[in-house]
Amino acid sequence: MALKERLLESGYLETDYLLSELEGYFPSALNKRFGKVFGEHRLKREIIGNQLVNNLVNRLGISFPFRMMDETGADVAAVIRNYRLACKLYSAEAIWNEIESLDGLISQATQLDMKMEMRKLIERTMFWLQRNRSKAFATEKVIEEFAPGIAKLSPRVLGLLHESEKILVGEKSEQYREDGVPEKLAERIAVLTSQFACLDIIAVKESSKRPLEYVAAVYFELGRQLRLGWLNGKVSKLPRGNFWQSLARSAIRDDFHAECRTLTSDVLGGGVGSTSAEELVAGWCEQNSLAVERYQKLIQRIEAGSGIELEKMAVVLKELHAIVLNEDDKQLSRAWGGNAD
Fold this sequence. Notes:
30% of the residues are buried. It contains 19 helices and no strands. The chain has helices at 2-10, 28-34, 44-60, 64-72, 76-89, 92-100, 108-132, 139-153, 157-160, 163-178, 183-190, 192-195, 197-208, 212-226, 228-236, 243-268, 277-287, 289-304, 310-335. Helix 14 (212-226) crosses helix 17 (277-287) and helix 16 (243-268) packs parallel to helix 19 (310-335). Mean pLDDT is 85; it is low at 332-341. By secondary structure, the chain is mostly helical.
């Protein structure tokens, strides 16, 4: 297979931390007796490569790695690296295994739907990592940076969502439970899409040096004020019927999340003392009222229309960016002693 051949040629398989893949290849009895010397196996690279590629293809499909390479310029080693990282950060294998443990107990359609929710989160995380934490960042450093924060935030995301988003999550969770999915798993799967925001929140936290929970509260409150959750859902529905549409959608998603991070950082930059997230965002919106109102009117026009296309999304992103530029202009004016208004 082309993927395995490319991986063998990449040099990626020389990494010592991949030796754990050998444990999943050999029977448990052999692991107990010879596990310490598996690293000396003369075919270890081929075995590890086979394990990695098979796992990726089994979970995400044969076409996804090629699509990611086309859309991002990543090589096969980067795709595998990002897949392993994404699965590690969101405990994907444990969740997939829990879903598969329900074989025969729930409908296949429900199982497939839950697996797809996990798959979407992993795919989006892989793209995010490729764009923002490429192989120039050591794998261990990325795990150290994000894993604790994701573990801390994931159980709290539902409570931070806007009421309309909570309703959607609740409805999806209820559908799962009606088909026999255990309550905890149903809720966990239903909120997976929103947990993707953890990456942006942690990245902003690192640069702002603010407490993680506070950054998360500001991020979601800003999302509520600017309808960013709704907008993110529209990005997911953009067409990708051909190569160029796929590239455009991928670029728009990257730009959207970059704007979310920039806006959140901008809001946090104006807060002092014990200001609540709600007060901080409200004050920021008031300071940038003209730009915010123009953006909100644009969103209302889109809502009243027939849908959102690539062209409309490009305009929306421009207006989001204009809010930040508006704040930058004000800060520059204040620095020069002028009147921003």
